[in-house]
Amino acid sequence: MYTIKQLRRKKDISQSQLAKEIGVSLRTIQLYERKDANIPIKNLTKIADFFDLTIAELYLHEVNDMGEAYTKKQPFTKHGSVFYPLSHGKYLVMAPLVLVEWSKKYIENLKEDSVKNPFQAGFIVDFLNEEPHRVFEVSGDSMNDSTMDAIPNKAFVLALETKKETLTKNDENLWNRSYILVCSDRIICKQLMGFNRQTNALQCHNLNTSPEYQDFEVSINDVLQVFRVMKKQI
């Protein structure tokens, strides 16, 4: 995040000093100060605390540095996400974040109908959607084919919840897109190719063509939630 460099300079401290305060290496801070840095939420929290900011305020600083001015309009909450109106009709959305290590807990809470996300991550969106927003941390390289569509290991994706029943209609507009499937025993990111009515299963495709990543099917009955991937942070 470029704003980390700006805040650090205003505080008149070096990268080495900030690294020591956060508990990471100098090289890590150098990487974090890049515009497209993917910062673990735990370290992002430490950085925000160090500068006496909330994570949302840290994102708003980044937004202003990108030229998307915060309009000072009152933020509002919708489906557990907080939306900050920006200029040009855009929004900074602070959405519930599901980290890889929190996946099992998320599924357990979902089964108990008591989902609570202790983390959030920010994305800029061009318009509001009615569907609930969630951010998921992706694990593994099965969706990494080094193209523009690739979703590499540790990437964060912003996704919109979709009713799983819609995926049984075989609408062509639904397929060849990346989705997050919250299953009864795991959370996966895959490209969906269609719905097999004979097996009552979703056809999942890996972008990575390595032999270790084989396409497979997931029974629709094992799927608890479906989210359509809209954006990613690498």
TrEMBL record:
This is DNA-binding transcriptional regulator, XRE-family HTH domain. GO terms for molecular function: DNA binding. SUPFAM superfamilies: lambda repressor-like DNA-binding domains. The keyword Lipid biosynthesis does not apply. Residues 4-58 form the HTH cro/C1-type domain. Pfam families: HTH_3 (PF01381). Keywords: DNA-binding. PROSITE patterns: HTH_CROC1 (PS50943).
